[in-house]
Amino acid sequence: MHRGKGMKFVGDSRVPAVRKPNIPKDYSEYPGKTEVFWPNFLLKEWLVGSVFLVGFLCLTVAHPSPLERIADPTDTTYVPLPDWYFLFLYQLLKYSYASGPYTVVGAIIIPGLAFGALLLAPFLDRGPERRPWKRPVATGMMLLALAAMIYLTWEAVVTHDWKKAAEQGKIRAEVKIDTNAEGYKIAQANTCTSCHGQNLSGGAGPSLIGTGLKPEEIAKIAKEGKGNMPAGVFKGTDEELKKLSEFIAGLKAE
Question: What InterPro entries does the record tag this protein with (predicted)?
Answer without folding.
Answer: Cyt_b/b6_C, Cyt_b/b6_C_sf, Cyt_c-like_dom, Cyt_c-like_dom_sf, Cytb/b6-like_sf, Cytochrome_c550/c551-like, MenaQ_cyt_c_Rdtase_cyt_b/c-su
